[in-house]
Amino acid sequence: MIFDEDSVVRKNGLANRLAFWVAILTVIVITGLGIYFDYFLRTSFLDATRTRMAYSFERLNFNLSQIESSLSDGVAFLKVDESALASLKLINLYDDKKHYTSFLPDQEKKALAQELLNKVKLSFNDSIVLYGRKMEVIAYVARDDTKGFHLNVISYRKGEPTLFRRYESDLHYSEAPLSLMDVDGINYQHVNFYPDEAVENNTHLTLHRSGEGLTITSHLRLSDEKPNSPIAHIEMSRVLDGEYFTALSGNMNLDFILSDHPAEGVENIGPLRGDSQAFSVFEGPERYYSSMYLDTLNGRVFFNVSMQRHQLTKVLSQNRIHLFVLLLVAVLFALFWIRFITVRSLRRPLDALVAQILKIQQCDYSPTQVLESRDELQQVSESINVLASTVRDRECSLTKSQKELKYLSDHDVLTGLFNRRFWSRFLDESLKKAGQLHSSAAVLFIDLDQFKEVNDIQGHDVGDKLLQAVASRLECSLSVNETLARIGGDEFNLLIENLRSAEDARTVACRIIRLFSHPFIVGEQQINISASIGITLFPEDGQDSITLTKYADLAMYKAKENGRNSFCFFSKELSAQVNAKAELASALRHALKDFSEFELYYQPKVSADTGKVVAVEALIRWHHPCLGLVSPARFIPLAEELGLIVPLGEWVLEQGCQDYMRLCELGIRLDHISINVSNVQLDDDAFPSTLDRVLRESGIIPDALELEITESYIARQPGQARERLQYFRDRGVRLAVDDFGTGYSAMNTLQSMPVTRIKIDKSFVDGLPCDSNSVALTRAVVSLAKNFKLALTAEGVETAAQLDFLSAEKCDEVQGFYFSMPVTFDHLITYCRDNKA
């Protein structure tokens, strides 16, 4: 309709338009001049920008050369510094870790650290590190953004490296965690990124991409006359971070950044260093961009510069205004004088162009014969054909993209299985269909056992590949009536349709369990993993997808409780257990609001020789107003599972220390109080500060507090456990291994731990003195404790015969019902006074 009205207008005004030919020519000429001036201004600005950016790259290249020269000179002193060389030879002479004598070599290392500080500050660089003949760190200096430079030396204790640090404003060194070297970017063992001969008595420069900056490092290795006999290796580094490039941007009056990618739109990107600086400038809507690169040891980095175009935009706008005024005057002048000029009609070509446009409007994108006018109208006709082709291609691309988007919206990107979004919709539809057909179905909830450990130990990359392997194996085993989906993490759901009986679901579950009997090949390693499966049946267990999935999840957790690598059907009893557990969890959370329902009981620990009370063990009790006295065996594991053991354990620690100090005020002097600490508490990063606070606020001396830990904590990650337990021992707190002999800790692992006591488990004591196995095991533990010079406590002593045997075996302390059950604090006071503690 719009095109019809326009056609009428063209018919009525054709004669007048024929008279405007010269005016149109005038417009074309003036417009061409305007376009030329626009192009000239844009080109001039672009050339000036290119010159300015070229100078900025030259300036950066010069700065890098100056820094590299400074770094090379900074490490070259080691070749001629006789004092430093003498210190290095002395340190190398005493580098036996097992028989390390710290005084003399450590003093030399500190002197070298001071020399390193002078060199790195004099050269205005960031860090310097010195390695010994074994390519292990002797000393290094690094910069802290807040406190300045800090000096670091490596000493050894029991063959293990120990870091000592002081800031340049401090007078003395203090021990620091070895992990701080990672924070400083220092490797304890030197790592080569180049051939040894490249740094043999000569400086060598390397570049690294580090975080958001660029690190330039100079390397120098000194060797004896013998081949492959290094004396030392020294490295000095300078980090060009964001502040450096901000300052450079201010000096050059443009924006300079370091990136892993070139600026968007820049095509011709050359190296910063070379015979010629080949680069191009990209003209964006608001800014000019250009990039050059440098190759580093860990990849290529790009130096991107940009500059605003607002000056050019302002000039172009003014030029266009002038052009418009000139054009208006010229057109009016032409219309006034040249109405008599005739030109050929425009009606036919315009109608042809309109026909082309209407064809596109009707979704017909086939090529149309181009208008043969040999002028701008022909170009428009050709452009319309190009437009039709472009629209056709875009619609095809859009259709393809919609299909891909539909696939991605329904499938898991990692495994290619159906995802949670598709599964929810599919399960609802399948259950609805099964209900209409009166058929049965089963939902299986599959969860990988100990997958978190694989992720934590092997890394997420290995974990992802393992999930892909598991998904592939599961998918290959599916039958026609089975649908598998990954709903997140290491969890998979399986729907079995047209189920004949529960036995069919059992058969499928057994088949899946067998799939995990063979290891999964991930890269070059084999990983063994199992699965736990929960099963719900439709319509017996539920009528909707949410209920069935929830019940399958509960059944899966029951399978894990039963030992993993198994399956479990949902049952009403399981639901009742879950509800009871949920009620207990709710009650536990409520009780933790003010801890008024909790109370500490104490079991006396008696000297096996004198029979006097020498210590007590704190045991928590929960008095619930409705449930009564709740056994710790019920609520302690639940607290650990819910993450509530941390505040609960903190309350036990505070209350126990306060009660011990009250006993002291009453004149009851005990050697110590024992408090159990769970693995969850020990893994909590805030626990050391909590312990320090309780010691400080309660006033208890650290030696009067004994923390009881489990063997499982020691055996799980010995290195991490040793570091955490050493922190407690450094504070003076005692450490006891509870229920010793029931865990998996090796003897050499126990020997390396800073524990002070082991406690013989009640299961060993029960058979004394008649059972030969109990006697042998108990004597072995006693002998182990004496050899390791550890105190010894026996738990669960209930008879005089057991006491006599343990006393004869020189057991230090005993505790059990033979002496006293766990009692309240008031009863403890009476008991201690009666037994003259």
UniProtKB/TrEMBL annotation:
One of its GO terms (cellular component) is membrane. CDD domains: EAL, GGDEF. It comes from the Bacteria. Keywords: Membrane, Transmembrane, Transmembrane helix. The keyword Methyltransferase does not apply. Residues 581-836 form the EAL domain. Residues 344-396 form the HAMP domain. This is GGDEF-domain containing protein. The lineage of its organism: Bacteria, Pseudomonadati, Pseudomonadota, Gammaproteobacteria, Oceanospirillales.
